[in-house]
Design a protein that fits this description.
The structure is a homodimer of 322-residue chains.
Chain A lengths: L1 H23 L6 H9 L5 H12 L7 H23 L3 E2 L2 E2 L1 H5 L1 H20 L4 H23 L8 H26 L4 H25 L5 H4 L5 H4 L5 H9 L2 H12 L5 H13 L2 H21 L5 H15 L3
Antiparallel strand pairs in A: 1-2
Helix pairs in contact in A: 1-2, 1-4, 3-4, 3-8, 3-16, 4-6, 4-7, 4-8, 7-8, 8-9, 9-15, 12-14, 12-15, 15-16
């Protein structure tokens, strides 16, 4: 994965520079909020995917950074709104924006970022790109609505869970890859391959994220372990555990989750039990199957240095520990 | 204004039918929220302006309804988020969405509507349209941020007030008219004329709205009189009143507004005093000056039945009582 890391070392600062300069052009009233959102950093996964797919498919335009940053602005907007819904205290280890600047500012800054993302994409001159990100943002919001509809709901089944994570995470990652292919005017077959690559990579990314919530320490992921369960979100490791539990334990847990009766100590103990039965590992195994589908999409790409890096990206999602 | 009313009678149901059918295509989880938002109705001012400008400038495509409805979806999204920020209890006489479905649903439904509006516009195939609405949504959010920054602030001056209402209301109305001109490929001069028409109409529309808040009865506008002041928003009628008041009264009021010390009775009495000094009338007079600028923009349009209707629209904004 050495080449991917070298690529990131060069490209992440460039992406950050464009994110900063676009933010600095906005009204001073919203800048402090956006600076706070952007300083929390993150891997810039989505813009990197746009860069890699576009370049791997032959696009050489310098405007690629503006298009790539559109995806990061859209992603940041969904995080801003998401953190309000979740009542999240931390985001990437920093205090969540709605707690620092208030909910009102967080809602409106999210709207500004949604609009900025759309504007940067519209300026590509290709309406397929704007249509692509609009579809993705709609799916993202619908995924979050579905997640909230199933909060504290231990009857959530695998299909329901998959629909939620596909919506809230995978569609925007898919859009990042599709936008790259559309910019490169790669043609219908490759555009579909980029979509398949992105969607499956995105599903796997969220599966690994959900596994990490049951596997890591608070320090390593920048938020408390078992955070999903604390927010009432039933993710795959817990669904695996519930499925394997006997009926009385399952009923008892389902009831306690529904009525928010689990104490901090209960949650810590439950996270350990989920780990012991290997449910986080099972979740990563499933991620591996989606990564194989992503790899099948990528196989259709013509050979290029970027294709090799995208392949390393698959490896990165498979093995990441935070 | 008879012809405009006849036009509305034909076109409003068509617009509503497209709004409904687009909403029905969305996921069932979000449909009840959107039905609630749309059933509150409203005049469909923005889509009507898109219809009238596009047709008046020679556009005959049947897809005009989809583009026009994009504007209404975007507008509804801003209302959804705005009502959360304001803690509004009513919208057009119906309970506000965030109170019926919860804040979470209102935030996400707003995001869905923003995305749907962008998608419907992107499907026009002309990226200038998406760029236009993205700019407008950004300005709208920034206008609302500016409004919130000046909440309970009696030092707000006329320029500050004008920037707020231009942002939060006029840019989207401007976009409605510009999109019509862009669809019709009317050329730079007419596109600018449509922008001037829309921006000034929008400023006047909000001025009249702010005047009505000091002039109407609760029944006629579907929300309590003096609602803006109750939310801590200082609008032009009150700014006029404060300017005319002597220093002690001005200081006393500024202090009470700042510290939220005004009782319901205080507010009712103050609204009456603002009315008595004719401050709502002064605000409507200023609206008239912006409507004259709107008319100057419209003058550049080629003659058409729709141009006559747009002229009646100016008259409608001038004289509306709710």
């Amino acid at each position: 994965m050495h080449e991917l890391l070298s690529y990131l070392e060069v490209e992440q600062p460039r992406i950050n520079a464009v994110l900063d300069s676009e933010t600095e052009m906005l009204d001073e009233l919203v800048r402090p909020v956006l600076r706070h959102v952007l300083k929390a950093g993150g891997k810039r996964l989505r813009p990197l995917l746009t860069l890699l797919t576009a370049r791997g498919l032959g696009y050489t335009g310098e405007d690629i950074y503006l298009r790539a940053c559109s995806l990061e602005f859209l992603h940041s907007a969904t995080l801003l709104h998401d953190d309000i819904l979740d009542g999240a205290a931390l985001r990437r280890g920093f205090p969540a924006t709605h707690l620092v600047f208030g909910q009102t500012q967080a809602i409106l800054a999210g709207d500004v970022l949604l609009a900025l993302g759309n504007k940067l994409m519209a300026e590509s001159g290709d309406p397929r790109l704007t249509a692509c990100i609009s579809e993705a943002i709609m799916h993202t919001a619908l995924g979050e609505i579905a997640e909230i509809a199933h909060i504290r709901d231990a009857t959530l089944d695998f299909e329901g869970y998959l629909a939620i994570i596909t919506g809230k995470t995978a569609y925007l990652i898919q859009a990042a890859c599709m936008c790259g292919a559309l910019l490169a005017k790669a043609g219908a077959t490759i555009e579909q391959a980029a979509a398949d690559f992105g969607l499956n990579l995105g599903i796997a990314f969220q599966l690994v994220d959900d596994a990490l919530d049951y596997a890591s320490t608070a320090e390593s992921v920048g938020k408390p372990v078992g955070a999903d369960l604390r927010e009432g979100k039933l993710t795959l490791p817990l669904l695996h555990y519930l499925q394997a539990a006997d009926q009385p334990e399952r009923d008892d847990l389902a009831h306690k989750i529904k009525t928010s009766e689990l104490t901090d100590a209960d949650i810590t103990a439950l996270v350990r039990r989920v780990q012991s039965m290997g449910a986080d590992r099972q979740t990563r195994d499933l991620a591996g199957r989606y990564l194989a589908k992503a790899a099948a999409g990528l196989d259709l790409f013509p050979e290029s240095p970027e294709k090799a890096l995208l392949s390393q990206m698959i490896q990165y999602v498979r093995t990441r520990e935070k």
